[in-house]
Write a structure and sequence with these properties.
heterodimer; A: 12 helices; 0% strand; B: alpha/beta; Rossmann fold; 4-stranded antiparallel β-sheet; 10 helices; 10 strands; 36% helix
């Protein structure tokens, strides 16, 4: 039996919106407008995506997959770039990083027959890879910026002792990568214990055997783990150099970062 | 007349205005002046942590831009206001500079601790377990590990209490003499300047408005600005 949420049942979802709305009204949080607007917007967005996906899934995979994956990569690039606007070439580096990560993961999936080259499989799974990579790149950029600001004294000391920018930044690169990887390692450790991952839950609700659902979940969880690591490493290694000029001098202000790119 | 080790000719940037002066080998020069006068900006030009917008700086009769930057920075060591030690042990910090170019000799560690008057037992101590004064000593040892010819100091005791400052001054005084270092130091503290320096450069709004032997300068200031600064 295919599970189905009827339109009538969907209407009752309004109860889930009424709870935060009541809280906001009662405690005068001033969020009522936001709650109503985001609920309507989220619903419309999901339905639109649903219809687009239905359309894409019916397309020839050689058209539908590249089209949707490209759109996802471009949107993710714009979003992640916001975290490092003041850094030169952030857009290009993130775009290249996302293409590399998604390309490598997709190639492995197909090469080892984990996923079939069908829009209904590749698009949702690629969406999870690109989305998580986007967040990882944004976090890595933010972390790197704050580490450079907090450690400017140490960086100046290292440069003064004769270190090249890659040697001086070693500490910051390590900290940034650590910060990007630790949550992922933790997530993998508790997978299935604290909460059932979204994809697995969806498949089980869709009537798939739990063991089969777990196999899919493993593919996606380990792929995400690998792509998040690769994304954080890619963006960190590609961007740290922009915090220095060609004379191995530390650029401290946003203005310097913007104007003195190498 | 001694040879100039550093020569500044018409050096200008956003803060500094047309600076012309020489620093001679083994000189002990104190840069002082009010906040925002450009003292640290000037100090960072010596080891190219910054570059000027105009003019020329020579180190041993050659433009500093002709030196390989890492080599120049090893020859012109810098000690900052805070110790800025790297995470790890005292030894990790002491060997940092020489290790970068594969020149670390493990026997030097003992000697460096001796220079900065820290016991040998400190070698493997984590730097975050040290007091502020001890950390600044390690930082000084780390700078000396590269065997610099010039020592730049950017208010090295401003984060320390009076007694610890005096101890660091004592170490500095001895080391600069023993190693025949040329010293350029930024300081706010006139007592410290008198103790450690021979020549003073008084900076105001990016200009050197007095350049004279410290003793003369502090007892007979020529400009009203310096008089006011001394009285403050």
């Amino acid at each position: 039996m295919e599970p189905e949420v009827s339109n009538q049942s969907l209407l009752f979802l309004i109860v889930f919106v009424l709870v935060p709305l009541t809280l906001s009204y009662y405690y005068q949080l001033g969020m009522s407008k936001d709650i109503v607007w985001s609920s309507i917007r989220g619903t419309i967005q999901l339905f639109v995506v649903g219809y687009i996906l239905t359309f894409l899934f019916d397309l020839n995979p050689y058209i539908g997959i590249p089209l949707m994956v490209s759109i996802m990569i471009v949107i993710a690039t714009f979003h992640a770039r916001n975290k490092g606007k003041e850094l030169p070439n952030a857009f290009g580096v993130i775009l290249l990083g996302l293409i590399t990560v998604e390309g490598s993961v997709l190639a492995l999936w197909l090469a080892f027959d984990m996923v079939e080259f069908r829009p209904s499989e590749v698009i949702p799974m690629s969406g999870m890879i690109i989305g998580n990579s986007m967040v990882a790149m944004g976090l890595a950029l933010e972390r790197m910026k704050s580490e450079f600001t907090e450690n400017s004294g140490r960086l100046m000391a290292a440069l003064s002792l004769g270190a090249k920018p890659n040697q001086a930044s070693h500490l910051i690169i390590t900290k940034t990568l650590n910060a990007a990887l630790i949550p992922n390692v933790d997530r993998l450790k508790t997978i299935g214990l604290v909460q059932l991952p979204g994809m697995m839950t969806g498949l089980i609700l869709g009537g798939v055997e739990p063991v089969m659902a777990i196999k899919y979940q493993l593919v996606i969880s380990l792929s995400i783990f690998s792509s998040v690591s690769l994304s954080a490493m890619f963006v960190t290694m590609a961007m740290y150099r922009y915090f220095f000029n060609k004379n191995d001098q530390l650029l401290e202000s946003e203005e310097e970062l913007r104007t003195q790119s190498k | 007349m001694a040879q100039p080790i550093f020569s500044f000719k018409g050096v200008t940037d956003d803060i500094l205005k047309d600076l012309n002066f020489n620093i001679y080998t083994n000189e002990k020069v104190m840069l002082f002046g009010p906040s925002g006068a450009g003292k640290s900006s000037l100090l960072f030009l010596f080891n190219r942590l910054r570059d000027p917008k105009g003019g020329k700086i020579e180190f041993k009769d050659r433009p500093i831009t002709e030196y390989e930057i890492s080599n120049l920075r090893r020859k012109v060591g810098l000690l900052l206001q805070s110790s800025n030690l790297f995470p790890g042990t005292v030894l990790d910090n002491l060997k940092y500079g020489p290790s970068l170019c594969g020149e670390w000799n493990p026997e030097d560690a003992k000697k460096l601790l001796e220079y900065v008057q820290l016991p040998e037992s400190y070698m493997n101590r984590k730097v975050d377990q040290l007091s502020g004064g001890e950390q600044q000593r390690v930082s000084l040892g780390r700078t000396l590990a590269n065997s610099p010819e010039v020592l730049l100091l950017d208010e090295p005791t401003s984060a320390l209490d009076y007694r610890t400052s005096e101890e660091i001054e004592e170490v500095l005084e001895r080391l600069v003499d023993e190693h025949q270092l040329t010293m350029v130091m930024v300081t706010h503290d006139l007592r410290q300047a008198k103790r450690l320096g021979e020549r003073g450069l008084f900076l105001m709004d990016g200009e050197i408005i007095e350049d004279a032997p410290l003793q003369t300068m502090l007892t007979k200031p020529k400009t009203a600005e310096l008089k006011d600064f001394i009285q403050e």
